[in-house]
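ok, trying the design again with the full structure, not the truncated one.
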């Protein structure tokens, strides 16, 4: 089966997941190191791990998309 047609959307999805995950990871790390709130009105003990989980999930999905190419 020719994967040429299917590779365009997979590359786009991988780029979106990887960029979002990397940006969220960098932003969360910077906010946590400066002891600034990560999410408005949410305790840092809840917000930081949740944001890191979402970032890691996004990076994993991006890696999965790249692996499918």
């Amino acid at each position: 089966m020719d994967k040429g047609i299917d590779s365009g959307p997979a590359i786009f999805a991988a780029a979106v997941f990887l960029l979002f995950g990397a940006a969220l990871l960098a932003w969360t790390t910077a906010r946590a190191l400066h002891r600034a709130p990560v999410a408005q009105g949410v305790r840092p003990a809840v917000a930081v791990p949740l944001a890191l989980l979402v970032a890691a999930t996004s990076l994993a999905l991006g890696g999965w998309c790249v692996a499918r190419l």
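Keeping the full-length input from now on. Residues 4-33 form the longest helix (30 residues).
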